[in-house]
Amino acid sequence: xxxxxxxxxxCIDLGIKISSIIKPxxxxxLEGDLGAGKTTFVKGLLKGLNYKHDVTSxxxxxxxxxxxxxxxxxxxxxxxxxHKRWEIIGLDEYLFSDNIVILEWGNIVKDLLPNDIxxxxxxxxxxxxxxxxxxxxxxxx
Length: 141
Fold this sequence. Notes:
- By secondary structure, the chain is of the alpha/beta class.
- The chain has helices at 8-19, 38-48, 83-89, 91-95, and strands at residues 2-5, 27-32, 63-67, 71-76, 100-104, 118-124, 130-133.
- It is built from four helices and seven strands; from the N terminus they run E-H-E-H-E-E-H-H-E-E-E.
């Protein structure tokens, strides 16, 4: 997958589309700079999974849980990189579950993550335009 989105709506729409491809047990690592569209994309994923409430970044809470068509765990590593703290929080219980797990900034703690995660990279092109790309074969070309 290598897609350009031109605005927030297109980013949400892409998240909705990807929601039909992911399944329980999948771990998605969304990687990119601040403001690259990671949380906006998650809003689309959850919308596609019939979640009807607000979706917020777990930057300060570290972990948000959403009950949609499937349970979705949304984790943000940006503010907490201490491996011991993640062990105490129970990261492994989240990662090795039948939930859909979405990680923001997974690249910060990549040595804590399993090898079979699905990476989606977010790249700024300009104020509103983003490039999203993944080498995962499920997303096609």
